[in-house]
Structure formats: structure tokens, C-alpha cells
Specification:
Elements: E1 2-6, H1 11-22, E2 29-33, E3 42-45, E4 48-51, H2 55-60, E5 65-68, H3 72-84, E6 88-91, E7 103-104, H4 107-110, E8 120-122, H5 126-142, E9 144-153, H6 160-171, H7 201-214, E10 220-227, E11 234-242, H8 248-256, E12 261-263, H9 275-278, E13 284-291, E14 298-305, H10 309-325
Parallel strand pairs: 1-2, 1-5, 5-6, 6-8, 7-8, 9-10, 12-13
Antiparallel strand pairs: 3-4, 9-11, 11-14, 13-14
Helix pairs in contact: 1-10, 5-7, 5-10
This protein binds 3-amino-D-alanine.
Length: 329
């Protein structure tokens, strides 16, 4: 497979290269792509050195698959050009996610929707992916009525500038600000910009993308997204109200048997997921599973995942693996 990685020098792009190598994805030729300022830079992949090229050069080289993590505008401008050249694009930005003609894919849930005609495929938002990985099997069994989610998001979701801001604040150094406020020793209840309804784009991604991925607009979702000074991954408290009652042991067993989900849940041994331990892993970790005693048919839980891996790079590459395995590219 001739594979282009668009945004190869960025945070997610670097993790994509790492995961491609780790999973031994069948790359016969790698095309690292970045903005003009990075063209000519050298990157190493599986012991071989490659020169970073610009977007038009990459289009002209007609990759089989292009993995994008280069921002929404670059995706809007360039994904169609790659697709027109015969390349299948899997895009990490929000550009195409809610486009009714584009598929929004978490392989464990809806990869079966993919066809060879899908030339631009959207990778969901990181905080959505880890939540729906848990919601999907439970929806199948108990039918979800409403979800209330609060996120505690890693600064790596914002990118290098945010990591640098935190390091500067640790060191007591004034530097460029990724956020409006100090993030060190703080929690900022704003991830991305505010929409007209006073929710942030991040919160509305959780609402809108969940419905699309699970194919059910009847699921009510409300979200609060918070940024915290953590690097290993995103954490979420999720309160799920079902249409039907459930058995907590059975619910835990369903999650235990869900591919890609690991249950870490034992109060006797203080066992529960934490971003410090989720970092670098591809699974979605769930714990603190307990009945909501304030209302019937409702459960609380805590979900943690590495936002750069299952939340972005690994999910993207799992989509590519599905395309290859099913001869859709
Ligand atoms: C964030 N989910 O964490 C968004 C984009 N990666 O900022």
C-alpha cells in the first residue's frame, strides 16, 4: 500500500507513523506530507528515511490511502483532490464528520457501512470515540434514552502549543498561550470555541457525532467538556439512562466482552482507569460502574483512553486496516 500521512510532522501524525509501524500495516511506500515550511524535512519510518513533501506533490503520487491530520481547512481544500486522484482519504479533522454524504467510522461499531465508493471517510472526535465504544454495546442490549457526559481532556488534544504552555507554567516561564488562561493547577471549562447555544464545539461534537455513529437520533446527549493539565488521555464521567432496566453484573460482562474495551472496576482493590496508565495504549478503559441511585434504569461510569491513539491515530489506522482486509482500496 502506498500510504500518505498528511500532517506527518504534527502530534497525531507522529503517532500515526508509530502505530503504522507497530501494527505492521502493509506500507510499500510512505509519503510524509506537511505544510510548505516542513517540506524537505527528513522523517524516519521503520528504519528508512523519507523526505517530507508538499500537498500537490503527494496528490500527484497517487497514494492508495491518505491519513489526514492537518486541520479542517486543509482537509476541505485537499481531501477532494486526493480523492479525485483515486486516493482514499481518512480524515481526523471535523471537516467531513457531519457531511451527510460521508461516513463517520469507529470500526468496532460501524465499519460494515464502508464501501469502495467511500473516498473520504471521517474519523470521529477523540472524546466521542472513547464514549461510543462503551455506549454502542449497551445501546444494543438496553436501548439508551439519554447520556450526560462530562469530559476531563488532556492538553495533547490541543496540540504542541498547549503542552509547551503547561511546561512553561511549571517552570514559571512566560510563553505563548494556547489557552485563554493558565492551565497549570487549573481546569478550563472550555474546549474549542463557543457556539450560539453557549455550548462549545467540543461539546456539540459529542452530541452530534454520537447520534451519527450509533445511527439513532433518538439518543439524547448533553455534554460539558473541560480541559485539565494531564497528558496521557481523556477521561469522562458518563451517566446513561436506558429505556429498560439492566443488571449491573450483566452490563459489566457485556463491556468485558466488547472488543477494544477493558473493564477496570474493583473498589476493593482501588482498581479504576486513569490517564497516567492509559497513555500509549489503544484500548478504552472503563470503571466506576455503578447504578445511579437517583433514578431508575440509569448507570454511572468513568471512561478513559489515550486521545492520540484510539482517539485519533489508531482508530484511523483500524479504518485503513478494514478497507484493506475487505478489499475496499
Ligand atoms: C481536543 N478533541 O481534545 C479535541 C481535538 N483533538 O482538543
Amino acid at each position: 500500500m502506498k500510504v500518505a500521512v498528511v500532517g506527518a510532522t504534527g502530534m497525531v501524525g507522529e503517532v500515526m507513523l508509530q502505530v503504522l509501524a507497530e501494527r505492521n500495516f502493509p506500507v510499500t511506500e510512505l509519503i510524509p506530507v506537511a505544510s510548505e515550511k516542513s517540506v524537505g524535512k527528513e522523517i524516519e519510518f521503520k528504519g528508512k528515511k523519507y523526505q517530507v513533501v508538499g500537498l500537490q506533490t503527494a496528490v500527484d503520487r497517487k497514494a492508495d490511502i491518505a491519513l489526514f491530520s492537518a486541520g479542517g481547512q486543509t482537509s476541505l481544500d485537499w481531501a477532494p483532490k486526493f480523492a479525485a486522484a483515486g486516493t482514499t482519504v481518512i480524515d481526523n479533522s471535523s471537516a467531513w464528520r457531519m457531511d451527510p454524504t460521508k461516513k463517520l467510522i469507529v470500526p468496532e461499531i460501524n465499519a460494515h457501512e464502508l464501501t469502495a465508493a467511500d473516498k473520504i471517510i471521517a474519523n470521529p472526535n477523540c472524546s466521542t470515540i472513547q464514549m461510543v465504544m462503551v455506549l454502542a454495546p449497551l445501546h444494543k442490549k438496553y436501548t439508551i434514552k439519554r447520556v450526560v457526559v462530562s469530559t476531563y481532556q488532556s492538553i495533547t488534544g490541543t496540540g504542541v502549543k498547549a503542552v509547551q504552555q503547561l511546561e512553561n507554567e511549571y517552570a514559571g516561564v512566560q510563553g505563548e498561550m494556547a489557552y485563554k488562561y493558565q492551565i497549570h493547577r487549573n481546569a478550563i471549562p472550555q474546549c474549542d470555541v463557543f457556539e450560539d447555544n453557549d455550548y462549545t464545539k467540543e461539546e456539540m461534537k459529542l452530541v452530534r457525532e454520537t447520534k451519527k455513529i450509533m445511527g439513532d437520533n433518538s439518543i439524547a446527549v448533553t455534554a460539558t467538556a473541560v480541559r485539565i493539565p494531564v497528558v496521557g488521555g481523556h477521561s469522562e464521567t458518563v451517566n446513561i439512562e436506558f429505556n429498560n432496566d439492566f443488571d449491573i453484573a450483566e452490563l459489566r460482562k457485556i463491556l468485558h466482552h466488547t472488543n477494544g474495551v477493558v473493564v477496570q472496576d474493583n473498589t476493593d482493590t482501588y482498581t479504576y482507569p486513569m490517564p497516567l496508565y492509559a497513555e500509549g495504549k489503544d484500548e478504552v478503559f472503563v470503571g466506576r460502574i455503578r447504578r445511579d441511585e437517583s433514578q431508575p434504569n440509569t448507570v454511572n461510569m468513568w471512561i478513559v483512553a489515550d486521545n492520540l491513539r484510539k482517539g485519533a491515530a489508531t482508530n484511523t489506522i483500524q479504518i485503513a486496516e478494514y478497507l484493506v482486509a475487505h478489499k475496499l482500496v
